[in-house]
Amino acid sequence: MSDQSTGATYAAAGVSIEAGDLAVEMMKKWVAKATRPEVVGGLGGFAGLFDASAFKRYDRPLLATATDGVGTKVALAAAMDKHDTIGHDLVGMVVDDLVVCGAEPLFMTDYICVGKVHPERVAQIVKGIAEGCALAGCALVGGETAEHPGLLGPDEYDVAGAGTGVVEADRLLGAERVRAGDVVIAMAASGLHSNGYSLVRHVLLKEAGWQLDREVPEFGRTLGEELLEPTRIYSLDCLALTRAAEIHAFSHVTGGGLAANLARVIPSHLHARLDRGTWTPMPVFQTVAEVGRMETLEIEKTLNMGIGMVAVVPQESVDAVLAVLEDRDVEAWILGDIVDRAGDYAKAEGAALYGAYA
């Protein structure tokens, strides 16, 4: 009697088609909440469809596109077994890059790579993405969940996304609109957002040995809860500003910190003066700085320091901008101004902070 061996299967290699199908079924109700009238069809096709006939109302529509991930913040979500907020971070990182140029975010797609498909976990991740899209006013038109056993551990995953927006050509925002005398207005962040987590994890978890369930009195909650605070999504707030007042530029404060990101929308002949004394960073930033014995300039070029978005506006727009943001429950304040490069600022690289924190 000859030996018979079972042939190789996808499941034996670590990939479960059934688990993937279940995950899709579980996420459908959340994706349905992240839609727009222009979306054609539903989840399950090979490509998401969006009716572009709405662009006919534009004289010269420009499509804007952006893609991003959330970095090592996913490691904290996995460690805490809390997966329903990381999608907010993903959406914020993408759509707020789009709105910087004045573009209205229209739709997103996502990519979730896992070591092993846990349907409930994947559904929770997509739930967060869908909720983020709803907050941003854009649709989630599709995505991909890939199972990569051997490349990732069974409880490891990563997320990425891409978004598309549209802006009228003559309403495009950016450095070419910025003028000397413009005012720089800061919009408060919800926390660390989704940048600098390699530094934060190194300082607090590795070097200091803090545990995620550690109660931190300055935070009023555990370390893990503070670190998982979702990224604030500003797209609808910024679009409201463009309708209410003249805006010259926005800057999304992500990797590189406040000065470096603002410098990206300041023309070479101008300089932004930003006053540290206009705000006090949240306790989490002070904690990272103190525990890591970090110099001010080092932490400022890595973390957002409590400012997630910046608007550069003419003087006559300041009151309207602050009023709109207050009405939308976005904490905002005058951070600085735009000046000609001269004297002490001749060697500056676009933007610089001065003074001490309040």
UniProtKB/TrEMBL annotation:
One of the GO biological process terms: 'de novo' IMP biosynthetic process
Q: Which UniProt keywords apply?
A: ATP-binding, Cytoplasm, Ligase, Nucleotide-binding, Purine biosynthesis
Note the InterPro entries from the entry: PurM-like_C_dom, PurM-like_C_sf, PurM-like_N, PurM-like_N_sf, PurM_cligase
Q: Name one GO cellular component term.
A: cytosol
Domain called PurM-like N-terminal: residue spans: 59-167
**Which compartment or compartments is the protein found in?**
Cytoplasm
A GO molecular function for this record? phosphoribosylformylglycinamidine cyclo-ligase activity
Q: What protein is this chain from?
A: Phosphoribosylformylglycinamidine cyclo-ligase
**Organism this protein belongs to:** Streptacidiphilus jiangxiensis
| Gene for this chain | purM
